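Technical note accompanying the year-one report. For the benefit of new consortium partners, we illustrate the data format agreed upon in the data management plan: each record pairs a sequence with a structure-token string. No post-processing was applied to the example shown here.
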Amino acid sequence: MTNESFAGYAYMVKALGQKIRERREELDLSLREFAKKLDCSAPFISDVEHGRRFPSESMLEQMAHFLKLDLAELKQHDQRAPLDEIKRMTEQDPGYAFAFRTLLERKLTPEELLQLVSKSKPLPKGGQKK
């Protein structure tokens, strides 16, 4: 997949909550029934479906199971930034913190960012520059 087609794909993908709701309705599961299966509240499921809250990893696994979806397929709809991973990277290497701050200051669009990445030289195997 090229960077351009990925950018287009990212905008066409349904949000996680939309996907969960559509699949729940396809299976003719009410919000309350689904919540009961997951041992959680109906308002929590409603919040997830409306994008106000996000399920934990274990809850997402259970949802995938009851919705008869592959977990990886469901995760494709999760549009949240990988904050824990970004935090870990910036703590381990201050260069990442500077790079992310610079990125935010320049207010690049996703397309511009993908163009920059595609123009860069690929890293050698193992991911580290020599």
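Partners are asked to follow this layout when depositing records. The CA atoms of residues 32 and 42 lie 5 Å apart.
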